[in-house]
Design goal:
By secondary structure, this protein is mainly α. The protein has six helices and two strands; from the N terminus they run αααααββα. It has a single domain, classed as Arc Repressor Mutant, subunit A (Orthogonal Bundle), CATH 1.10.10.
Length: 111
């Protein structure tokens, strides 16, 4: 649950992979935030959308490099939340799950 934060789609895909014997939980934890993982299409779609908006890209870089919730501005915070990438902690945001933190840190070359 730490990896996918209870996100219904991510949980479903992860459990399906494990139930089908395609990978163990340990292997899933290793490969999930990579291009090798079963969630790569989902992650790449988000990455593509972020790369098309410089302000959202800057905001998500702040979010994934901080270990505490950050203020990225109201508009960016609501857009990121509507994408399902972040969750609110008061008026600040943090990654919805560790998967997003790990993947975006790596793919965006931050952290």
């Amino acid at each position: 649950m730490t990896l996918v934060g209870g996100h219904p789609y991510l949980v479903r895909v992860a459990l399906y992979q494990i139930a089908r014997g395609r990978m163990t939980l340990q292997k899933l934890e290793q490969v999930a935030p990579t291009e090798e993982g079963p969630l790569c299409d989902h992650l790449r779609r988000h990455l593509r959308n972020l790369e098309e908006d410089a302000e959202l890209l800057a905001a998500v870089k702040l979010v994934v490099t901080s270990d505490i919730p950050v203020d990225v501005g109201s508009v960016e915070a609501f857009k990121l939340r509507s994408m399902g990438i972040v969750k609110f902690q008061g008026n600040k945001v943090m990654p919805l799950c560790d998967l997003y933190r790990q993947y975006f840190r790596d793919r965006l070359g931050v952290g």
